[in-house]
Amino acid sequence: MSQKAETRQPLTRGRIAAAAVGVMDREGPDALSMRHIGDELGVSAMSLYNHVEDRDDLILAMIDEVMAEFELPVSDVEDWEERVRLLARSYRDVLLAHPGVMQLFTEVQRPSTSIESLRPIEIALVTLRSTGLSEADAVEAYRMFGGYIMGFVLMESKGMFDAPAGMSSEMLAAQIPDALPMLKANFGVMCMSDSSMDFEFGVDIMIAGIRERVRAPHS
Question: How many domains does the chain have?
Answer without folding.
Answer: 2
